[in-house]
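Quiz preparation item.
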């Protein structure tokens, strides 16, 4: 969900409202890096899948196939 400069994201199954004010042109479906409630970077889908797979391998993230890990 996008609403102005706010978005609802899923972070490992936890839903949270964050600010997107630091990024331009954030769209529904974008993968973003979140730090202290702000989207601070955008990842392309391939890079996001690789990052999620590495985090899952370390045991710190949800299943990388879980589509709920994006806006």
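Solution:
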């Amino acid at each position: 969900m996008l609403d102005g400069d706010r978005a609802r994201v899923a972070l490992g199954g936890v839903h949270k409202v964050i600010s997107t004010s630091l990024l331009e042109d954030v769209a529904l479906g974008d993968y973003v890096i979140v730090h202290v409630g702000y989207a601070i970077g955008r990842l392309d889908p391939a890079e996001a899948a690789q990052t999620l797979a590495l985090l899952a391998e370390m045991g710190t993230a949800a299943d990388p196939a879980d589509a709920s890990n994006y806006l």
